[in-house]
Amino acid sequence: MPIKIPDSLPARHILEGENVFVIGESRAMHQDIRPLRILILNLMPLKIATETHLLRTLSNSPLQVEVEFLMTSSHVSKNTSRDHLISFYQVFDDVKTKKYDGLIITGAPVELLEFEEVNYWEEIKQIMDWSKTNVTSTFHICWGAQAGLYHHYGINKYHLNKKMFGVFKHTVEVPEEPLMRGFNDVFSAPHSRHTEVRKDEILACDDLILLSESEDAGVYIVMSKDRRHIFVTGHSEYDPYTLKEEYERDLAKGLKIDMPINYFKDNDATKQPEVTWRSHASLLFSNWLNYYVYQATPFLLDEIK
Questions:
Q1: 205 in active site
Q2: 237 is catalytic
Q3: Is 162 exposed, middle or buried (0-12, 13-18, 19+ CB in 10 A)?
Q4: Which of 14, 128, 135, 194 is deepest in the core (most CB within 10 A)?
Q5: What is the CATH number of the domain that holds 140?
């Protein structure tokens, strides 16, 4: 089944070139089914790239998905054109009376700041509180996961001695949970972050379940016991070259940055990256859409509570 996006969204042409099944709004209007309505709060600076990453992973589902994009009004992106934002994004005032089947909150390049120091923190808190009554399930990514764990459950984040950067092996801790259905016992996922949440604090919280962790990268997937919040500390949605682009960007800036671990073939930065996480990413998002959104959401969105 297709993913429904605006006719003129730039990601559409990229995805169609990859044979991803997408349909425009005009065609979707003639299909007599109710698509899942997913709202993406995109906090990443390169918004078009993040749109493409997420739409690619959301498309691997038998469900029709209708996507809307949300940005903060308290912070203006400097890396995405104003025309693009005006054309494809809403702010919270535009959506606060609506209900959605699912919400995705992305990462953000603010993890070295305390949460309260982020200039849009109050707005993020407002959106997360709103999601409790207006969204069936929320999927938090990287900084978005740390922010959600902190706001909803008081879980702290801690600075790492150096950036967690590369592709790491993870284990499945609760194989019977539907989110992990179809996962290998050991699977790979990318990380790119300077902070972490700690296992002992997750396990000490009665309202949380640790679903996956890594010996090297630590806590990976956490879920609330009511199944309405998923927290993923890595970037399973990343495309093959995202870590490479981040590495080369930091080198060009003269920043101290190690080569991403387990990413380039033979750990040689002159060689191409090896993608070892694509199937896991597809499963993670399709399982979320099926078991925690589609199977849980009411047919009439107004009945979400």
A1: no
A2: yes
A3: exposed
A4: 135
A5: 3.40.50.880
